[in-house]
């Protein structure tokens, strides 16, 4: 592992972000980590080492605040080698019962904040002639479950953003990966990382059943955040890392089945698809 790397990690005070930051510091990396409260972040990480750890209080809805945090990181470490856009939260409920403002709020955090942070970091990476953007998505962005339509939409947006961003920045020596986990034991469902709207509409049984299953599974998810963090760390040493990295056996199975279904559907409707063109 190259200990000279400087990582900038958003949403680092809990969950996968916190596990990753601790693992990075244990392995000698330098880390600038963001949270809404720097003191909470310090306490969660449990390491006060200004030579290698820079906790930052950042309002990710404020581009000026993001820019200032980038300047602080460069002042402390002189470079930014890896950006991890991890900040985000979940949302479960039927789309007709979730308040409109709450829908806009989750897009602001899960999508727009990641784009704004990437915009702020890319000039640094272009100047260096190297860099790595790692966006934390979800298998739900490709294969959603009932009741998770809004959350899935945010993660699908992150996946699409990552795909095209990779094409845009390849010439500058910058790599991009979107990490798409299934269920991991990070407290995602019970530590304030989930906005849950219980359905009071008769019906929506698939949504209600799925919500019960997810809530009952908290703390029993098969995904190990320690192993996920080690895998993410290993990406930076790869000459050709994956663009999409699904994490967890459940993520693999769900993505594989979706690809099979999509391929069959694409071929079934091929004649309709190509008939939309002008005749040559």
Automatic annotation (TrEMBL):
Q: Which molecular function GO terms apply here?
A: oxidoreductase activity
> Carries keyword Oxidoreductase?
yes
Per the record, the domain of life is Bacteria
**Name of the protein in its database record:** SDR family NAD(P)-dependent oxidoreductase
Pfam families the record matches: adh_short (PF00106)
Give the UniProt keywords, A-Z: Oxidoreductase
Protein family according to the UniProt entry:
Belongs to the short-chain dehydrogenases/reductases (SDR) family.
Q: Which PANTHER family match?
A: SHORT CHAIN DEHYDROGENASE, SHORT-CHAIN DEHYDROGENASE_REDUCTASE FAMILY PROTEIN
């Amino acid at each position: 592992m190259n200990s000279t790397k400087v990582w900038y990690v958003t949403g680092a005070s809990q969950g996968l972000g916190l596990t990753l930051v601790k693992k990075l510091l244990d392995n000698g990396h330098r880390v600038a980590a963001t949270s809404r409260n720097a003191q909470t972040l310090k306490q969660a990480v449990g390491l006060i080492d200004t030579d290698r750890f820079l906790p930052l209080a950042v309002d990710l809805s404020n581009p000026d605040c993001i820019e200032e945090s980038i300047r602080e990181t460069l002042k402390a470490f002189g470079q930014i080698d890896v950006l991890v856009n991890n900040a985000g939260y979940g949302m479960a409920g039927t789309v007709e019962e979730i308040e409109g403002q709450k829908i806009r709020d989750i897009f602001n955090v899960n999508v727009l904040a990641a784009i704004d942070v990437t915009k702020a970091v890319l000039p640094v990476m272009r100047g260096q002639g190297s860099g790595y953007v790692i966006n934390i998505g979800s298998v739900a962005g490709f294969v959603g479950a009932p009741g998770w339509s809004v959350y899935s939409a945010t993660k699908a947006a992150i996946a699409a953003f990552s795909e095209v961003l990779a094409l845009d920045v390849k010439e500058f020596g910058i790599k991009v990966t979107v990490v798409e986990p299934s269920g991991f034991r990070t407290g995602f469902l019970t530590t304030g990382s989930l906005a849950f709207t219980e359905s009071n509409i008769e019906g929506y049984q698939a949504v209600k059943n799925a919500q019960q299953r997810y809530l009952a599974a908290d703390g029993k998810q098969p995904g190990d955040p320690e192993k996920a963090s080690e895998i993410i760390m290993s990406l930076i040493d790869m000459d050709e890392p994956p663009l999409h990295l699904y994490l967890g056996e459940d993520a693999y199975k769900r993505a594989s089945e979706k690809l099979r279904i999509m391929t069959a559907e694409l071929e079934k409707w091929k004649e309709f698809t190509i008939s939309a063109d002008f005749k040559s």
